[in-house]
Design the sequence.
């Protein structure tokens, strides 16, 4: 069974002593007083539409949520902004270059990895393909365009994706 960060992290990275849970998002070392804040991991995703207004989804190749549909995207690296990270992820996953045409919004969610559930915060951009032919690579086993109605009938990897689709089409 997956654990939250405050259930999984027991010891201070500075002195090795036990953490004490102070608040739902704060662990404090009993010995040295180090504060570990449980902050969401920043992520990106892109809603890419075709000329008919359908949106592109990717089928996840690996766990978590293997074979579920998702928006293309991923985790931001420490030195990236949303523009750079979204373009990098789309290039890695689909082999195409995009132009970001807007911000759809920011969405809180969670991501289970190796038995720990991490809070995430995903900034979702609207984008269009400006170069290349779509081909699944990296973490993607399949790609397809879907209508708004079809998206809500699929096995979707993360609940925040549906919220983003609602905002995008509103």
Sequence:
């Amino acid at each position: 069974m997956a654990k939250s960060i405050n259930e999984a992290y027991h010891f201070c990275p500075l002195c090795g002593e036990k953490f004490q849970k102070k608040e739902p998002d704060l662990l404090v070392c009993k010995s040295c007083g180090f504060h570990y804040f449980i902050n969401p991991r920043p992520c990106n995703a892109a809603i890419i539409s075709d000329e008919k207004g359908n949106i592109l989804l990717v089928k996840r190749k690996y766990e978590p949520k293997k074979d579920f549909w998702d928006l293309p995207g991923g985790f931001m690296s420490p030195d990236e902004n949303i523009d750079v990270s979204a373009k990098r992820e789309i290039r890695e996953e689909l082999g195409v270059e995009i132009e970001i045409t807007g911000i759809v919004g920011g969405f809180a969610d969670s991501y289970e990895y190796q038995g720990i559930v991490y809070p995430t915060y995903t900034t979702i951009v609207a984008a269009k393909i400006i170069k290349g032919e779509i081909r699944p690579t990296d973490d993607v086993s399949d790609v397809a365009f879907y209508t708004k109605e079809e998206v809500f009938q699929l096995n979707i990897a993360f609940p925040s994706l549906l919220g983003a689709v609602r905002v995008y089409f509103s």
